Amino acid sequence: MPTGRQLRPWRSAVALALAPQLLLLPAALTAQTTPRGGAAATTTPLPKGPRAMMLGDWYRVVNVGAPAVSPDGKRIAMTVTKAVENENRRHSEVWVVNTAGGEPQRWTSPGTESSNPRWSPDGTYLFFTSSRSGGTGNTWAIRLDQPSGEAIQVPSYPTSGTMPANGAFAVFAEAATPAPQVPAGDPFAQQQPMARPPFDAITRPAVPTRFDGRHVVDMAYKNNATGFVPGRRVARTWRPQQLFKQTVGDTAKKQITNVAYSHRSPVVSPDGKWVAFVADARLRPDSVVELERDSLARLPYDKVRDEAERNDADIYLLSVDGGAPRKVADWMGAESDLTWSPDGKQLAFIGRPGRTKSARIFVVDVNGGSPRNLLGDWQFEPSGMDWLRTGIQFTADIGGRSAVLRADLTGKGAPKELVGGRRQIRGTSYDAAGKVLAFVATSMTKPTELFVANADGTGERKLTGFNDAVNADVVWSDAERFTYKSVGNVEIEGWLMKPYGYEAGKKYPMVIYIHGGPHSAYGEGWFDEFQNLAAQGMFVLFTNPRGSSGYGADFTYSTRGRWGMEDYEDLMKAVDIVAARPDVDATKLGATGGSYGGFMTTWMATKTNRFAAIQTDRTITDWTYWYGSSDAQGLTEFEFYGKPWDNQALYDTLSPIRYVQKVKTPMLIVQSEEDHRTPMGSAEMWFMSLKKQGVPVELVRYPRSNHDLSRTGEPWLLVDRLGRLRQWFGYWLQGQKPGTSAN
Fold first, then answer.
1. What pTM did the predictor assign?
2. Burial class (CB in 10 A: 0-12, 13-18, 19+), 294
3. Which of 216, 511, 567, 681 is the most interior residue, by most CB within 10 Å?
């Protein structure tokens, strides 16, 4: 059985015969959703298929995620998310299906948002996260051992953390002391958090009630996901993470530790006697570690980049009743995903020996010793694991696909693939006995659905059909996988998706997509953006050039200090290969990409005029500007070997704006107003520069949107963007009239 039991799905993916009294729906979400304002709203019906994807089909695609198998292996809970078109929002519910088959059932109210299901170890409760009102916090539960309808809260049951095999208690890490209260008579008490002066600031507002701006003294004062946020010296809420224990049936939390360093990723042993956790390698106070890292960051980068690998953290054991911790092993690298062996004698962890080295699975005896590497020099990297009675099973990206594998516990053999194929697996979960495996999967022509199999991968079955209706109407385009040798004889993986209605003997335009990151990857999964342009009648080319993840750390970090060099050649080599095909019109080529892909598309525009049109998304055109305005300075400090003043020549050399005078290609720029990862200034500079030179250019600025617009942004704006891509490339590559309505 899985050990160190977590009160969450065992693995989740950027979270049924009982309870007949619960509110149920048919197998798929209803076609009409009642808006918050009252009566059901309708949208224009889409024509029946088979046909190409229309923009309205985007709202019909259902996303399945966060699978969680019940302890007895008889049910699987999951999060089901669908867009509510008339309300411009997404809606999530928890659904449950029998592993033996049958219709999935909705277990949470359609009037509230619910997600991230997880079972109590005894199967008495199905916990989930919900924003519903009337309670404390956002953890709710459905009770299964007696008739139940409305969800409840169970303060006497731990709702987070890790449990022993018997589920008697949970251990978790959180800050120990309450946030400091604003003292009486504070002249700044009525100000918003970022308007009040930090405690060590030099300036103060002349009249506190008249200042509603932001007073910043910390570097980390904004981030892409939440916008502007108070720094530590404003909020004064940061404290070390301590260990706590809560017994089932008791609302009290017992604090186990009270020290100056943080305890991270605690996991309880199967027998409930020990807690394993990750902490600073020398158990130094967090403040000391932070100061050391800050001092290191201030050094000229040439004094830092050749520094030996640092051992910042190690694994420790502590009695669940407290006491002095014992280090398990001195291991050079970063440890994560701690997992106990079923007999409690060993610990497994995912370790990365160095920042640019591949992650491995290691096993170490709890009494100490040298961790042993179970994956050897296997090319790929684990992304999560479970230690079952039959051994360690883990998930991994294998290039553009993903798989569930079993490690060789001796470390002498290659891992065995149990579940794989041309698809991507996004979330796995096992029952308590480790016999049932549930997972969410998607392929190039199939959106996400839930599957179940025996833990060894045999007996696989598809359990849901949430997307059956849209799949029946839309002919999703498939893609041909190919590999090719690029500069330095490096093998690159790519795909070419055929246009809808493809006919042999005809020529079609082609658009290359460039992913972000750059340490991310495209792969064998359904993707709305590819299908959008294929439905428009275009070839879609996408590749994983060097710098991409999924091929081992050597491949991933080979572009360090060399963005726009060999990776650019990898992309253009793929364009050369595809453009030589007799069914591709080499005079009608386009390119598009976001974030790193946005940088690369602007970079391409300065180096070649072979593209008839380019769309750049979340672009970066000046790296020095980006460094001062982004929330992620650490990216270029690592990738470009220092801060701008440490390596200004590289920052300038890799900035597309330095070569903007060479650009002749028509460009559509898409940028979000609240994007703090790739701020608006890059797009503004690029737009103005092209406009001054007479290059056809348009800038679309999306309100209320951040860096994640194309993935999790407002549905109306996301779909609007898909339509603009169709129109832009339709005009320049297919001769459509300006303003032609996108379907």
1. 0.91
2. exposed
3. 511
